[in-house]
Structures are given as structure tokens and as C-alpha cells.
Amino acid sequence: MKKTLFDKVWDAHVVKKIQDGPQILYIDKHLIHEVTSPQAFGELEQRGIPVFRPNQIVATADHNTPTIDQHLPVKDPLSRNQLQQLTINCQKNNITLYGLGHKYNGIVHVMAPELGITQPGMTMVCGDSHTSTHGAFGTIAFGIGTSQVAQVFASQCLLLQKPKSLRVNVTGKLKPGVLPKDVILYIIAKLGTNAGTGYFCEYAGNVFEEMSMEGRMTVCNMSIEMGARGGMIAPDETTFEYVKGREFAPKGKEFDKKVTYWKTLPTDEGAVFDKEYHFDAEDIEPMITYGTNPGMGIKINENIPTENNASFEKSLRYMNFEKGQSLIDQKINYVFIGSCTNSRIEDFRVAAGFIKGKKKADNVTAWFVPGSQKVAEQIIEEGLNEVFEDAGFKLRQPGCSACLAMNDDKIPEGEYCVSTSNRNFEGRQGQGARTILASPLIAAATAIEGKIIDITKQLN
Amino acid sequence: MDKFTKLKSSAIPLSIENVDTDQIIPARFLKVTSRDGFGENLFRDWRYHKDGSPNLDFVMNNATYSGSVLVAGDNFGCGSSREHAAWAIHDYGFKVVVSSFFADIFKGNALNNGVLPVQVSPEYLKELFTQIKKDPKTQIEVDLENQKITILSTGSSSSFEINSYKKTCLINGYDDIDFLISNKTEIEAFENERV
Description:
The structure holds two protein chains of two kinds. Chain A is an alpha/beta fold.
């Protein structure tokens, strides 16, 4: 029987199959953060159930944290309490916590891979839908609800139906300026926000093979935006090279042994998927979104489509856009470079590459938020921070920030924000805020110009 | 967890597609550490204006409609995995959500909180919206045992799918934790085999 990458990893983690029912799936790593864990700890405590495998859990504070003055007490009492609760819960249960100010602190989906916690062939979960990010390593990684967080605390397992399989192939040569973010926005625009529901997605083809780990993470991160619980890319030399030598990665002979196993994971030739799509890399252009779900995306120089549908029209009303309109020259006052989608070193390199020698537009407020302390350090080491400062930008401290506006980084009502994050839902970046999703290159260009420009004209 | 067997109720029609969990409960309300009280902020930014006054155009503020069934457009519950969305729906008093499609994580979260997601065909969903619009007091019966939803005034019914394990859980009010813990010997054996 020919097996897919997903089958191989899944089958290696099945503890038990229940007849006509779900399967008990073993979870290797459980990542937690302050927002979706307190009720799970509370439930266990209430029922007198201990945490089963505390050493397989890693905690960070990211969603609800300020991105300035992190050394000071958090101002908002509710946020402060939630963060304190995480500290107390981790202490009580012997769970490693990389809290605010710790050198390993960062967005959960940025810090875990860079510490080597994420490894090929694992099963990983977190109470966060963008856990799909870790699939970039050939890992089964997916977001769970808080009741499931409690289940993993109690048993290191979940009860699940095995999802169906989907493969998205992108082959050919990407045009200049087309980044991993554009590839995934293009795929979601083509397939819609629910094409992947009930499926686990594998991304295949030379376009993904040629991507860095950072790029692969950006792609897998947004799998959930087309409904797929997770996305995966087969581990290869790029993966092994990335994992090698990281803090929590296996070392020496143990690493070599793992690599031998990891090399057996890619999908067998001839394995059958329940659904499969093919796209041509040459057709992809820098992308932007115009609506209120990530599937409402267009090539930057295209016009907003004309659809006669109440939900579509509601969405355009919220964005204050017209059918058929172009977004080129649209004035933009806010730019956000950050989030678990695009806050890694490569993203800031791309932004700095464009910004170097230019000046920030006067009308723009820009938030550059690195995904982790390590990314922040590297930005400084590589001198990118000077590029940003010379242009009039100021780097903030790590966290989820304006991606979901749980902290003070909120976009004001009615304002547009060109954002490298993953969701353009109504109010996502603040009540009444209007989000336009794009790559770090488009975001940087917008921050310099103060409006959306047709970047393809500069690239070709 | 609440038990669920059968329910007869009028319904609130929310004919919007792709309702994401950020709309169901915005992130700024996720700062608390308990499961209670989310109902008051359910659909907060659709239900209320920024000044806190109710948005009278929103269906939940229309006194014509009431009931413990929410009938919603396609792809309900997409986006963030926040279980707070299921808690908010439950806390507000909904026992059933009907749609032609549910996002995975939301569906699981609802089932883990005694809220039944009922997936029907797009045609049947349209029929539901039409009937409720025609008569807001339209009674809908949801029978979990027989996996059947019926518009009582017309007798029009439709079957729905649910995994048999989850069905048993809902009918008896069981949750997954007890079941998983009861398998601990096997889980430990699995761990030992892998080393």
C-alpha cells in the first residue's frame, strides 16, 4: 500500500483504533500559550486530574503581550492576570515556560521551530489554529480547542477521526517579487476558504522544494485559511540543515539516526490523494486581499471581482471598496509586518531590502514586530535595524501584536492596514479596522509610498 | 457536559456565509480565565454599535426571532480555534447550530460543549431560511437519536450525519477526557514501545 507523508506520520502515532469510531492519536509535543490554556488547567484541577506528561509541553506568552516596555508590569489588568495565571499553572505543573522577557520568548509558531522543538515526523498540537505552521517540517501539526488542550494534558493523546488527504502541487518558476506569502494567498484565492475542510494538505512541487524553511512555514501557516486543519511539506536536506544544531534538536549519532528515519517519510510515488490540485508558478503574481476573508484575494494589479452575492457585498461594504475597483494608489495609513505568518528573519530581510535608502511615508504608522527574541536579536546583528531606523521605522518587541489586536496594537476604526498577517476578518485588527493581507515586500513598499503601488512595474 | 437528545424550538436566522470565530467572539474578550459569561459578547460587533447601543438591524436584536436554534450560512465557525466561540454560543442559550457547512475546529469544539452542529444540504438550509422568514415562530425539531431535523409546520425533514462515538457522548453527556484516561495502560505501552 502506497502511503502519503501524512499517512506515515499519522500511522506511527495511533495508539488504538476504536471500532466504527475515532482513533487515539499520540501527541509528541504540546505547545501552550496564555489565552487558550487557563480553562484547560482549571478543568483538570477541578476534576483532580494531573498533567500526564509535563515534559512534553512547552509554554510561551505571545497573544496578549505588549510590544513595547516588556520589562514593565503589563498595564491591562486582565492581560496581566492571564499572563500571571500561565506562570502559576506552569510552575504548579512543572511545565517549561518561556515567558515575557525570556531569551526564548516569542510567538509560539516562531519560537518552537527556531529552538528545534519542532522536528520532522512528530505530532504537535496547540490551542491555536496556526499550529499548521509546523507542518513545514513534515510534522502533523494542528490547532485544537481548549477542551482538547485539557485532553492532551490528561493523556498526551487526542480522540480523532483521520482526516482525508489533499495535495496542492505548484510547479514552475516563480516571478521576481513573488514570495511564499503570495503563493499561499494565490492558492487560497483559487480554492476558497473551505476547500480544505476535513482534509490535511500536502504541498508538493519544485516551488516548495526550493523554498527556505521560513517560506515553507509561511505557506503551511495559512493552511487553516482554506479550511485544512494542517498543511505539510516533505522533509528534505533543507529541513535537516535547519533543524541541525538547534537547542532542542537531537545531536550527534541520535541526529543521524533521526535523519535516516525522516528520509523515509516523503509520500510514496503513486500514493493516491482524496483530492489533488495543480498550479503553474508562472501564473502567480504578488497578491493582496480586498475583502473580509483570506480567500478574497487578487493579483495586485487586478480589479476587485464583480459578484452578486449578499455576503460578498457585505464584505465590500465593510472594506468600503467597490466591485471592479483597482487597489493601486489606495492610500494606506497603517502597515504591520509581523505575526506567525511573516515575522521571521527572512521577512525582515525582504522588507529591509526594499526600504534601504528610502524614507517612510509621512502618513504611515508602521509596526515592525519580530516573531521572537531570537529574530529581534538577529535583526540587530544583521544591521537591518539600522536600515529601518534610517528610514524612520522603529522595531517593536516580539508578540502576536496587531494580528489579532488583543494588546494595544490596534488599527483605528475605518483605517486600512496592509498587513503580513493571516486574517482579514472584520475587526480582526481592531473594531472597524480594514485589513489588506500581503507579503512583507508589499507591506514594505506600502510603508514607503503611503499607498498601494503596483510592485510588478518595479520588478520587471 | 449537558446531555442532548431531542429539541423543539423556534430559530434565529443568520443568513451570512463564512461567519468566523472572530465575529462570534472578538479577541478582546478572550482575556479572562474562566469559561463563563461569554454569551453577553456573542457576535458583539454585529450586535452592538461601538457606543454600546444595540444594532437594531442585527437579527439577534430583532424581537421577532427567538429560540435555541441558530440557523447560519455556509462555512460557519471558520478561522481561529478559540473554543470561546462555542462557549459564547452555549452561554447565550443556543443548543443547536444548523448550517450547510461547518469549519472543523469549531465543529469539534461545539460537540465538546454539548452544542450540536447540524449540517444540512444547501437546499434544505434555504428552505429553513424561507420558512423562518415566512413565520418566525416556525418550530424546528432536532432529533439526535434518529439524526433527523424537521420543520414541524411543513413536515419537511432532513437527515444529518454525526460520528457514532460523539453521538453517544452527547446523548449521555460524556466527554473525551474520561475515555482517554481509561486507556492509559495502552498509552503507556505505546510510549514504551517507541523508545
